[in-house]
Amino acid sequence: MTVPKHEDFQNKGVLKLSNVIDVKKVADVQTHLWHEVNRKFGINIDDPSTWFSNASNPVGDARAKRLNGMGSIMRELKDSGQLDEIESEIQSSLDQVFGTHTWRPLDLWYSLLSFPGSESVWNVPHKSWHSDEPSVVGDAKPWSLFVFVFLDDVSADMGATTVISGSHRRAERLAKTLGTSNNEELINAFSSVNSGLFERPQNVTLLPMDQVLDPLVQEDPWFQELVQEGSPDQRIQRFIEEGSSLHDIEQKVVTLTGAAGDIIVFDPRCLHTFSANVSNLPRQVLRLDFRRQL
Asked: What is the rounded average pLDDT of the residues 123-130?
């Protein structure tokens, strides 16, 4: 039996939707983006010798390099209206899965463009696992959704974001025993996506983002292994192919890969991190966030 997409998303926290955006529109945005990157940074996508001509930008570690200063390019691209049709197509797809206008986009787009690092072999990351939104007791839905938009084909070895499917449900479970109230400052920090959801924020019981990973490591051998180094073959088999299950919650490491025009929706409460770009190509992905409607 086929599981409805919205139910699959509730269980896993990750949902891939293929061929959402017309590839011609994607190509137009891609062309404009690289024109602006060349104008601002002197980087030409077709000439790898220009990618690292500035020793201080892109920045990053051995896994991958990201360009500082892409925010202004994305704001100008948004203001120009060139993202409007793409945004509309994303909205239509989300409406079909979750219901009409249950989620609405924020105004800000992000560039997740990344260049190859110095590592030569791709592996499941063991560090920097984190979530980007707290888990609220009694509320199974996130405040926001992250939508990744693929401007080009992206494979795992291009530095794909890695997400632990099901980890948002593990966080929900932890929040019931470890959550605290009087977190108004944290709640207010997310006012762009949660305003109007709570009459009395001081009474909301939640588990902050930085208090999720350690308890999971303490109670679950699978997570204990995840945060330790290991050989690529073993880690890929253990975490991507096999996964694990605890408390009737299935969990796996999922690489956010796709083709130009695809989108991936994921719950920001899921643990995630970036992986190494060991290819000879930049990863070309944009992100648009959606907020839950009242």
From this structure: 98
**Residue 141 CA: distances (Å) to CA of 6, 137, 148, 197, 251:** 12, 10, 19, 12, 18
- Give the pLDDT confidence of 15-58 residue by residue, as tens digits: 999 999 999 999 999 999 999 999 999 999 999 999 999 988 99
Facing residues of 66 across strands?
Answer: 59, 114
Compute the distance between CA of residue 58 and CA of residue 21 in angstroms, rounded to an integer. Answer: 28
Alpha helices in the chain (DSSP H): 5-12, 23-41, 70-79, 84-98, 167-178, 184-189, 191-194, 213-219, 221-226, 232-235
Structure tokens at 217: 């490591």
Q: What's the angle, vertex CA 156, arms to CA 155 and CA 158, rounded to 5? A: 70
Q: Residue 177: phi, psi to the nearest 5?
A: -110, -30
Asked whether the CA dihedral 217, 218, 219, 224 is positive or negative, the reply is positive
Task: Check: pTM over 0.85? Answer yes or no.
Answer: yes
- pLDDT, one tens digit per residue, over 160-182 is 999 999 999 999 999 999 999 99
Residue 231: alpha-carbon gap to chain centroid: 25
